[in-house]
Design goal:
This protein has 235 residues and is of the alpha+beta class. It contains 5 helices and 12 strands. Strands 1-2-3-4-5-6-7-8-9-10-11-12 form a 12-stranded antiparallel β-barrel. The chain starts with a helix and ends in a 6-residue tail after the last helix. InterPro entries: LOR (IPR007612), LOR_sf (IPR038595), Tubby-like_C (IPR025659).
């Protein structure tokens, strides 16, 4: 598939919001400060198995090295994705709850999003399609500085879905796009370009991150986007 054709497909927006150019935030953004990147970085989110597999995703760098994994079930009463680093140590858990107010909770390993204070919460946005949501978090990069006010510690990122055939998700911080998640042209054996081929389709996603942003945080956002949009008939 030509790059021009793919771009034309991706520009056939679900969202009518004008798209922003990628640029770094005006201060670092992180759940885990050790994963803040100092250069523009591209990762690949690769689904493992089918939409109901226990081993769900791997996140790799451009050299094919695994940085993060996400395991756990999407479809059950205790829906939870457990994120681990390259060595297998747990980083945090992503819990899902059917609610219009708060649909996702990110907690420390072994945490309960409904009992413990979460690291971050996510909520669907009023938009014409799944895959539009927001993530609110306590920015640990700001919290590390005593000069910042409590308001500076709190942060909400908005995720906008674009594209009717090839999907793309912009991660917006204020007036800046700080990350982008999109269907990968390079890392998919096939692309689902019509409704019948999209049923059950779980493509690899390119994850492009601006300098100053936590890679593990964007990996969680990419998993939420993938779980919300792919792997079912309602894409």
């Amino acid at each position: 598939m030509s790059g021009a054709y793919a771009q034309a497909r991706m520009n056939h927006h679900i969202s009518s919001t004008p798209r922003k150019a990628l640029r770094g935030p005006d201060r670092p953004i992180a759940l885990r400060q050790e994963y803040i990147t100092d250069t523009k970085t591209t990762l690949v989110l690769s689904p493992q198995g089918d939409a109901q597999s226990a081993t769900a995703y791997k996140v790799k760098d451009q050299d094919g090295r695994t940085l993060f994994t996400a395991s756990g079930w999407k479809y059950n009463s205790g829906s939870c994705r457990e994120f681990r680093d390259a060595s297998g140590l747990p980083l945090f858990e992503l819990h899902r709850k059917i609610s219009l107010k708060t649909a996702w909770y990110i907690t420390l390993p072994g945490g309960d999003g409904e009992v413990d204070v979460p690291l971050a919460t996510g909520a669907p946005r009023l938009a014409p399609a799944f895959g539009n949501f927001s993530i609110s978090l306590r920015n640990t990069a700001a919290a590390a500085s005593e000069t910042n006010s409590e308001a500076d510690h709190q942060l909400t990122l908005v995720v906008e879905r674009h594209g009717r055939v090839l999907q793309s998700f912009d991660v917006i911080d204020g007036d800046r796009k700080v990350a982008e998640v999109c269907e990968s042209i390079r890392h998919n054996d096939k692309l689902a370009l019509n409704p019948s081929s999209r049923r059950g389709h779980r493509p690899a996603l390119d994850v492009v991150i601006a300098p100053g942003v936590d890679m593990s945080l964007v990996a969680v956002i990419a998993v939420i986007a993938s779980d919300s949009v792919y792997g079912s008939e309602s894409t």
